[in-house]
Amino acid sequence: MADLSLRTDAAHGVDGAVHEAASVGDFVQLLKPRVMSLVVFSGFAGLYVAPGHIHPFLAAVAVLCIAVAAGASGAINMWYDRDIDAIMRRTRNRPLPAGRMDPAEALGFGVVLSLLSVLVMALAVNYVAATLLALAIGFYVFVYTVWLKRRTPQNIVIGGAAGAFPPMIGWAATTGEVSLVSLALFALIFMWTPPHFWALALVKNGDYRNAGVPMLPVVAGDTATKRQMLVYTVLLLPVALVPCALGFASLAYAAVATAMSLVFIGFSLRLLGDAENRTAMKMFGFSLLYLFVLFAALIADRALGLA
Fold first, then answer.
1. DSSP label at 273?
2. Which of 98, 175, 234, 305 is most open to solvent, judged by the fewest CB atoms within 10 Å of its CB?
3. Residue 184 and residue 170 share a domain
4. Domain boundary among 177, 212, 227
């Protein structure tokens, strides 16, 4: 496994020099706020729908810890990937490859936020939620970023587990435990991640190829990728209904989950017959809506007392 020692290659941007002091906006960009938003929402959903009660202030602290941990993981990811980020068009203007921030500064920022988020979660909420939060950070940094991303086309399949932790963490914040329902919420995001990310990878195939990242479209080709996406979207339908099978979600949620899953499958079928991959970004956009709607439906179930 590659280590986390400071590297000097591509350390100061594309041309090797830091041009200006990092701004507040650069530090915000390190946190990957767009990715963080969905992580925070799924974490809040797990916390809100869990049985039991948590004080509103502690709930806010738990959600904040999840947000900070997600951002910290993103910062460390950007530090480690600064060399390939400098090659890819969609990432070359990030603070590190663009030379607006010193790598050590970014790494320190990510490490400090990671430690603070876990410590505050442990002291203010409970140790189970803090342990899961630490596992999520460690999985994203060491398993996905350092180990898998540059080595295997299954990087996003296995590494996607990191993004599936937030609802479990939220659930544990309220209940102090891991349950079958929280594992079902984990499985929902875990199965959702490959078709979601591969839809983007189909569009950004050239970037990944140039950077030497073995994403599935680069290694196996577009057709094989689309077939796997279809398999995952089909399997996602029963996984999305597991909360109902466990008696935790209502028939209203089941109807929403079934409808959204069928549309997701429909996008995958359209993409399979789309040689130009014009459907890929539409499917990527819908995948974000898919997860948001399903967790919103679970929150509505809880709020309305339907389940």
1. T
2. 305
3. no
4. 177
> CA nearest 181: which of 35, 58, 307?
307
Backbone angles phi, psi at 90, to 5 degrees: -75, -10
71: Cα separation from own chain's centroid: 11
Mean pLDDT of 39-64: 96
- Which residues contact residue 199 at a Cβ distance below 8 angstroms, ignoring those fewer than 6 apart? 229, 271, 280, 281, 283, 284, 287
What average pLDDT does range 143-165 have in this prediction?
Answer: 92
pLDDT tens profile 230-248: 999 999 999 999 999 999 9
Tracing tokens 């974000």 back to the chain, one arrives at 288
Q: How many angstroms separate the CA atoms of 305 and 307, rounded?
A: 6
Range of the domain at 91: 1-177
**This prediction's pTM:** 0.91
pLDDT tens column, 259-303: 999 999 999 999 999 999 999 999 999 999 999 999 999 999 999
User: For residue range 201-214, what is the model confidence (pLDDT) as tens digits?
Assistant: 999 999 999 999 99
DSSP for 26-76, please give it: HHHHHT-HHHHHHHHHHHHHHHHHSSS---HHHHHHHHHHHHHHHHHHHHH
- Number of domains comprising the chain: 2
What CATH number should be reported for the domain holding residue 306? 1.20.120
Band of the pLDDT at 20, cuts 50, 70, 90?
low
Number of residues in the chain: 307
Q: 183 and 173 in one domain?
A: no
- Among the three residues 177, 211, 234, which one is the final residue of a domain in this structure? 177
My answer on whether 98 and 186 are in the same domain is: no
